[in-house]
Specification:
single chain; mainly alpha; 32% helix; small ribosomal subunit rRNA binding; Ribosomal_bS18; RNA-binding
């Protein structure tokens, strides 16, 4: 009996979530919304594919934007 050859899975290189020119800032609402769930929760570092430093900066920026009422704390639109 012949064995089937093992196929290698090609790993697609994913693009970084934040482009080199983008700055994480509480005023950049389009960028902040990409890292929030539909319910308004901050997504984890593993899901976002951010570095630890970027995740900390993103969390602080989202919290500042929430306090200034630029983005809602919860998104309960049903």
């Amino acid at each position: 009996m012949k064995k089937k050859p093992i196929q290698k899975q090609r790993s697609r290189r994913r693009l970084p979530p934040i482009k080199s020119g983008e700055k994480i800032d509480y005023k950049n609402l389009d960028l902040l919304r990409r890292f929030l769930s539909e319910q308004g929760k901050i997504l984890s570092k593993r899901v976002n594919r951010l570095t630890s430093k970027q995740q900390r900066t993103m969390t602080i920026a989202i919290k500042r934007a929430r306090i200034l009422a630029l983005i809602p704390f919860l998104n309960n639109e049903n």
